[in-house]
Amino acid sequence: MKDIRPTNNNGSIRIRFRLAGRRYGFNPVPGGSYKNTRDLKTAQAIATRIANDILAGSFDPSLDRYRLTPRVAPRAVPKDVISLRDTWVLSLGLSEGILAGEYHKVRRMLEKAAPRLGDTVWLTGSGLAPGTFNKRLSLIRKCYRWAVSEGILDGSPWDAIAHRNIPKEDIKPFTVEETRKILEGFKGSPYGPFVLFLFLTGCRLSEAIGLTWEAVDLEAGTVTVKEVLAVDPTGNGHRRIRKGTKTGTVRVLSGEALTGLLSGLPKGNPGDLVFRSPRGCIISDTNFRARYWGPVLRSQGIPYRRPHVIRHSLASHAIARGMSLLEVSYLLGHKDTTMVIRTYGHLIGRPDLPDLGI
């Protein structure tokens, strides 16, 4: 049996353990703080009592024996889904950053639909894309399963609803000719160097936006990609926060064309951004796509694809030229070759039709 001990649950105290295939978890000191020495010692004493009872065969699976205040009468059943959701979320003690994501989006849907507890149409009939639908279905399932485990509800209508199949994206990389036209269209544009950097490196937009001169070594001809400037989920949609790359990897990129590009830019201080908007601000990917990227593709007669397809283009051309999967994975910042095989496997070792002499 593993040691049973109190843990830090966003400042409060929680005891979690598994016994005979079942999970247990509760707050042994309601209102207590993990930083409070007395509260923590009290929780440790309760954890020790649980461990001793298990060894003695007298463990109380209801956990009532170990609570400082006995569990009160069963909670009242919320009248609607939004009340249930709010009660569940409150019990999780999540950070603002996490709550600002799908948790907040689900709540906005509930505010508009105001569904009763047994209603599922507000989600199943919402017309969401399969990927988004699956995320929110998983979230609301967890909410109802929690309510069942707490004795608030007798069952969940969501367990009978299946996730939806996500159609595989038909990726159409930019051809060499399309790439040439795009770069030609950005000549003279304040975003010209930014777009050329994306094509040369295959970096994610947030990686290029967050690149600082500290990561550029012109003498060695290298660029170290280890951070991004991501949109702050708790902000207004414009504020950004600096954090590690999407996969947590660090990669060093080099090449004559890349060195030539960066050498031609006015160098700033180590903490300064390499690329900025025409007004000298942090680049807004939304503004860039709408006001610059889209119009250039239209003017050049190129079917619209997201800037993210530039990454696919780099990978496709690299594979076509014989670069190994491990090398391509490194350039794209993946931890291993799994994603590359899944996305570009159809390009690897693709044979030509045999010459039948006819």
Automatic annotation (TrEMBL):
InterPro entries listed in its UniProt record: DNA_brk_join_enz, Integrase-like_cat_sf, Integrase_catalytic, Tyrosine_recombinase_XerCD
Alphabetic keyword roster: DNA recombination
Entry GO MF terms: DNA binding
Pfam families registered for this protein in UniProt: Phage_integrase
All residue ranges annotated as the Tyr recombinase domain in the record: 169-358
GO terms, biological process: DNA integration; DNA recombination
Domain of life: Bacteria
Entry keyword Transcription regulation: no
Protein name as it appears in the record: Site-specific integrase
Provenance organism: Leptolyngbya iicbica LK
Organismal lineage: Bacteria, Bacillati, Cyanobacteriota, Cyanophyceae, Leptolyngbyales
